[in-house]
Amino acid sequence: MCGIVGYVGEREALPILMDGLARLEYRGYDSAGVALLGSDGRLRVAKQEGKLARLRAQLDARAEPPSGPTGLGHTRWATHGPPTTINAHPHHDEDGRLVLVHNGIIENYAPLREALRARGHRFDTETDTEVLVHLIEEAWYGRVATTAGADGTTDRTTDGDATSVTADRGLRGPAGSPIGADGPSRFAAAVRAALRQVEGAYALVVMSEDLPGTLVAARHFSPLVLGLGEGEQLVASDIPALLSHTRRVLLLEDGDVALVERAGVTVTDLAGQPQAREALTVTWDAAAAEKGGYAHFVRKEIDEQPGALADTLRGRLDGDRIHLPELAALDLDAIRRICVVACGTSLYAGMLARLMLERWARLPVEVAIASELRYGDPVLGPESLVILVSQSGETADTLAAQRLARAKGAPTLAVTNSVGSSITRAADATLYLQVGPEIGVVATKTFTGQLAVLTLLAAELGRRRGHFDAARVADLARDLRALPEAMTLAIAGEPAIRAAAEALADRRSMFFIGRGFNHPVALEAALKLKEISYIHAEGYPAGELKHGPIAMLDPSIPVFAFATPAPTYDKLVSNLEEVRARGAELVVVAGAGDTDIARLAERVLYVPVLREELEPFVNATVAQLFAYHAAVALGRDVDQPRNLAKSVTVE
Ligand code: AGP
């Protein structure tokens, strides 16, 4: 994960970098840092452990904060080395003349570091990233660095837990030669030479004190986007960080190295061969990524779900037909089985997809955890459609599973919210969620967006295979069109959901149970509660409780049950009796009008009655609100929960 930004132009870079980092903080928030190259030719770094607000306070307190029209910045999600100020990015070479920010993992960092140490390099941090800056230093200067150069001094100061590094030197190029007009392209060549020694994943931006107005950016398995302006260029991990400045973006591909200068950008591969990359114009609005009066993005995004759902369905329900032209890129007649691959919340959407695909399309479906599949030996081939579900489209495990599937000749279909994300570029076809940007780290509207797309897909495959006739498509289309209103009604039940959450927020553990379509919902409800409230929770198929977990139950552990109408409703009621007999407190989500269930439960949260396949939309919404209010009651950081990140771009 981690968010990175870069700027070259005529304007003061610091506010642009800080604004970009604020929009990327969802990617990581263990520490943050910036480096700026001033018009006086001096490079200055400021970094700080903790959230971006702490770096901002440090900068505000400085008499002379770093300034200049060239700079880069980083917000970190720690992988190697704890989230301290010293491990915060940017990292620098011995002389403080090169600085670099990185997102990803350098897998061969240990042998590289040993080799660099043996050649006289000194390491200040515990990160994998630091090897990159030393490798580039060797390739650029053509020598092993000393701790102080022959033509200047390095000044490192420590200010509380904030570190500043400044170096004061004249301009000098590789091996002490003066910088010529070809300096920037030689610098890009040095970065390429360094990167050819590296294994693993990276998106990085590097700058040299020798080259004002120049950045080099590179990408391999971690996202990186260039923002193209007039006389200024930007780099960022994600598009929202660019939108205040430009809508013209260029998506780098794996293996690309970009030379970014005020006048424009040049992209090559690692061997230096020019690469043609088309610029795109982003049509969605930066305002869509603002909080708009809500206390938290998560709460806003829960409320956005009815509208987002209408956006997902727009143009895809054509009268009584399902319209998914993207599927034309796949040979669906050749498909004999399906493997849905995902992580976390997206995995639970995949479990629900399986139930619909099996029911409507009569195809065997397997659901695989991406981090497990990638190291397994799955039976996949041209007859297996691999559906990759990922809101970010950048999840490292899911991307690796996609590479494995492709290597085995399986066609891949991406289901994602992120236009142009890595997963879409490697997929044979992509279905977009069209729910707009989701800024809260936990998935809410992207989950229901995934469900909507997967529902359409299952019905369309069923129709093509002759198992889901026109009348059934028409029924489903009618029910889907009514779904946004049902979700609005579910959200209107917030006062009772909030009261339940506030009453139970002091419990140390909870169970979430359901059967059939409500089993994945129970898993998602437990994950949501864990993620934002830090209350321990387990999701279980209700029929499995008696095979072990029931031993845990006592009056201190509430059980939250999804008991909406389904063929297994009576079986579920028996399970609730069993729970009740152990003295556990019951919160039940039930269909409107189910007054009988109240005899078993302390609290009943009513939702509109829907067809079984669509119940997860409203039941998951109730679970989201429950987790949200429990987290707020406990004073948690709802939008940026500890230890999490929006895109998990490392394994
Ligand atoms: C969702 O609330 C989680 N933060 C997480 O489980 C997420 O769903 C998972 O990391 C997969 O992300 P993706 O959809 O971007 O691939």
Task: Describe this protein's structure.
This protein has 651 residues and is α/β, with parallel strands linked by helices. The protein has three domains: 3-286, Aminohydrolase, N-terminal nucleophile (Ntn) domain (Glutamine Phosphoribosylpyrophosphate, subunit 1, domain 1), CATH 3.60.20; 291-492, 3-Layer(aba) Sandwich (Rossmann fold); 493-651, 3-Layer(aba) Sandwich (Rossmann fold), CATH 3.40.50.10490. It contains 17 helices and 28 strands. Strands 7-8-3-2-4-1-12-11-13-16 form a ten-stranded antiparallel sheet, with helices on one face. Helix 13 packs parallel to helix 17. It is globular. Bound molecules: 2-deoxy-2-amino glucitol-6-phosphate (AGP).
In terms of topology, how is this protein built?
Elements: E1 3-8, H1 13-24, E2 31-37, E3 43-49, H2 52-61, E4 70-76, E5 91-92, E6 98-106, H3 109-118, H4 130-141, E7 152-159, E8 162-169, H5 183-195, E9 200-208, E10 214-220, E11 225-228, E12 233-236, E13 248-251, E14 256-261, E15 264-268, E16 279-281, H6 297-303, H7 305-313, E17 317-318, E18 321-322, E19 337-342, H8 344-361, E20 365-369, H9 370-373, E21 384-389, H10 396-407, E22 412-416, H11 422-426, E23 429-432, H12 445-464, H13 470-492, H14 494-504, E24 509-514, H15 518-533, E25 536-541, E26 559-563, H16 569-581, E27 586-591, E28 603-607, H17 615-633
Parallel strand pairs: 19-20, 19-21, 21-22, 22-23, 24-25, 24-26, 26-27, 27-28
Antiparallel strand pairs: 1-4, 1-12, 2-3, 2-4, 3-8, 5-6, 6-9, 7-8, 9-10, 10-14, 11-12, 11-13, 13-16, 14-15, 17-18
Helix pairs in contact: 3-4, 4-5, 7-12, 7-13, 8-12, 8-15, 12-13, 13-17, 14-17, 15-17
2-deoxy-2-amino glucitol-6-phosphate (AGP) is lined by residues 343-346, 390-392, 395, 398, 441-443, 531, 644, 647-648.
